[in-house]
């Protein structure tokens, strides 16, 4: 447990121990997801840049607790379970190939801005019910929101307006998509609650998945342990992706949990209403569980990258993210077989987000290849 100060010198606790994080996420009675409990709200201005990621009186699944949360999680899980696996794979391959077509003749590209940051939201937009041309603006809004800077509030507002419009359209004309299945649920959720949950799902589904693609490609391009992945050894893609979830997880911190009564944790005294920020990457790197950080984790999935406890990422959402990320990586390696990093590995930089760990850019070079079904220009 580490006492920290958030932007504006707002106090909080950062939990980075594996066992401590397991305790916090596994005890919702003591460490609640109800953000209204926070004892610092009186000190938080309306324009606080981290506010969009720490909702106050926000009717979304993130801050719902108890039986209502379980009903809500079931509603989301059913809506996502309705996604056809073949359709998901098909959308992922089609959009990935279109994005590679845009760069394949150039011999070089930034795989973050021109690929990873565009792929997940295009797939999710299709699954949720959006038109293709709405994807770019959604990407910008979500990036602004999660980076927690001066554009965070505007990003949240754009995302809210887009989801509100989608829900209204699908209420009038249901279709075979996630938004329509949520609206058809009989558990009695309001349209505003569905709008909020769609915002949560597309934000949580796009940005970490984009960073999962980028971080995995970085690992395969810079770590000799995964060199075979670049030359046809496709079995090691899954291993590289799992390694990223341990060593370079896209979601490195989550805010948070709120203490319901005075308690002790990690040698510190926590007061009722204190906020606990979940240090997922810190826990994954805890030397008590990673005694040899140089050893590959193989198929070990005991990481915290999808959370833990009743508020962990729903399993259908994890599956969707994995299909999009793995397909995205496979298409890059299939279409650009001699891809190589264009800059020294140590010069790669990370985005400034306090929550997510992704690259600002991933410049690569490759031999120009034809577009699918086309020829060299």
Automatic annotation (TrEMBL):
Question: Can you provide one Gene Ontology molecular function annotated for this UniProt record?
Answer: heme binding
**Full protein name:** Cytochrome P450
The record's family statement is: Belongs to the cytochrome P450 family.
- Please give the PANTHER family that the UniProt record associates with this protein: CYTOCHROME P450 YJIB-RELATED, P450, PUTATIVE (EUROFUNG)-RELATED
Coiled-coil positions are none
CDD domains named among the record's database cross-references: CYP_unk
């Amino acid at each position: 447990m580490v006492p920290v100060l958030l932007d504006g010198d707002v106090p909080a606790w950062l939990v980075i121990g594996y066992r401590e994080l397991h305790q916090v996420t596994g005890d919702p009675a003591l460490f609640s997801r109800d953000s209204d409990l926070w004892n610092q709200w009186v000190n938080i201005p309306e324009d606080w840049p981290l506010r969009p990621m720490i909702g106050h009186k926000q009717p979304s699944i993130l801050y719902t607790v108890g039986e209502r949360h379980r009903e809500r999680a079931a509603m989301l899980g059913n809506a996502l379970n309705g996604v056809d696996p073949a359709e998901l794979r098909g959308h992922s391959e089609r959009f990935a190939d279109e994005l590679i077509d845009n760069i394949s003749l150039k011999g070089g590209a930034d795989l973050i801005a021109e690929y990873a940051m565009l792929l997940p939201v295009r797939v999710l937009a299709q699954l949720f019910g959006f038109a293709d041309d709405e994807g770019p603006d959604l990407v910008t809004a979500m990036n602004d929101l999660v980076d927690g800077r001066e554009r965070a509030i505007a990003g949240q507002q754009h995302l809210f307006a887009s989801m509100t419009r989608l829900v209204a359209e699908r209420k009038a004309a249901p279709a075979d998509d996630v938004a329509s299945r949520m609206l058809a649920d009989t558990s009695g959720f309001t349209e505003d609650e569905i709008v909020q949950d769609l915002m949560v799902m597309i934000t949580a589904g796009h940005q970490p998945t984009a960073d999962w693609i980028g971080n995995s490609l970085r690992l395969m391009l810079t770590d000799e342990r995964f060199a075979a992945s670049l030359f046809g050894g496709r079995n090691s893609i899954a291993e590289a992706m799992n390694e990223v979830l341990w060593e370079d997880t896209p979601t490195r911190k989550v805010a948070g949990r709120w203490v319901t009564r005075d308690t002790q944790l990690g040698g510190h005294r926590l007061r009722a209403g204190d906020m606990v920020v979940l240090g997922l990457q810190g826990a994954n790197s805890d030397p008590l569980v990673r005694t040899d950080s140089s050893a590959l984790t193989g198929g070990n999935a005991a990481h915290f990258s999808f959370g833990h406890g009743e508020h962990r990422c729903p399993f259908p959402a994890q599956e969707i993210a994995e299909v999009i990320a793995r397909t995205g990586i496979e298409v890059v390696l299939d279409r650009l077989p001699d891809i190589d990093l264009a800059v020294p590995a140590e010069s790669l930089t990370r985005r400034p987000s306090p929550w997510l760990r992704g690259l600002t850019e991933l410049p690569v070079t490759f031999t120009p290849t034809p577009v699918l079904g086309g020829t060299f220009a």
